[in-house]
Amino acid sequence: MSIDRRRFLQLGSSSVALSLIPSEIAAIPVRQKIIDVHLHAYPDDMPIPPAVNPITGKAVQLKNGAAHRSACLAEMKRLNIVKGIVSGGDGDRIAAAMSWHDADAGRIIPGAGVRGSEDTPLPDLNLLRSAFKEGRLKVLGEVTTQYAGLTLDDPKYAAYLALAEELDIPVALHTGTMPPGMSFDSCCRKARARLGDPILVEEALNRYPKLRLNLMHAGWPYLDDTISILFHYPQVNADLGAINWLLPRAEFHHYLEALMRAGFEKRLMFGSDQMYWPEGIAMAVDAVSSAPFLSPDQKQNIFYENAARFYRLS
Fold it and tell me: How do residues 84-110 score in pLDDT, each as one tens digit?
């Protein structure tokens, strides 16, 4: 959920501040391997704002992007997250993702975060082609079309999707909702809630039938349309980033159980979307681990197997 950082400074007093997660999650035991397909990086010298975690009510205590990276990598190691797909959340998004890879090449898979708005223009296509071919970037995304007031089938994304299909690069697309009030923020005046509906990816999927697409945030709250896209397009997966720790636990479990009941236990992937808060990673892990309707094998699929298959990780 790559958004303008000023918005998060307001979330502590927003209606998105929901029931607190027990503090005991900081010590949750995790034995199985995990792949986190939804992480965000920030430039090393970018000051991290004192954004309040909307759930715990605690403000960020990290000085800059470099300190944020160190804290997140430490959490990943503690929780046995053996692979993480990271894209930039602000500033030079591609360079920020690559800095994580430089810090832990065996664990981090860098992605190209792109938007396509006036303040965040699309990256040079030739530079992306070279980076994908050389393996310096391995994912196109997070692609935040919704914040630009666009859909994935907008002509400005055509060459990027064609490149991803040509080189078999998976695409990770922001879907679902946004933080409250995004369309009033200077970064995202054209953003609209309806543009997060996963049904809007259908034309792009038919135009690029070999595209591997991850519906980030699993399309919440558009349950029926998320199910429809997953059912009709087997090349599509969905990740649980942000909704697994920012939503009330009961609502997240309700949504996850509905997707499982619809038969997608091999198509759902773990993601944290930790943004400014390294502690969000453990909160996201706990939300999936605590789901009473998931069997051990189903948890293993969500935490590891589905992502390993979709992103073709050894």
Answer: 999 998 888 899 999 999 999 999 999
When pLDDT is averaged across residues 104-130 and rounded to a whole number, the result is 91
End-to-end, the C-alpha distance of the chain in Å comes to 27
64 has which bridge partners?
47
Of the candidates 176, 185, 193, which has an alpha carbon nearest to the alpha carbon of residue 239? 176
Q: What is the DSSP letter of 308?
A: H
Q: What are phi and psi of 224, to 5 degrees?
A: -60, -40
- Residue 249 to residues 137, 288, 290, 292, 296, Cα–Cα distance (Å): 34, 10, 9, 12, 19
Confirm if 288 and 298 have CB atoms less than 8 A apart: no
Q: What is the pLDDT of residue 24?
A: 45
Which domains can be identified in the chain, with CATH numbers?
5-14+24-310 (3.20.20.140)
pLDDT of residue 209 exceeding 90: yes
Query: Which are the contacts of 44, defined by CB distance < 8 A and separation ≥ 6?
Result: 64, 65, 66, 69, 96, 99
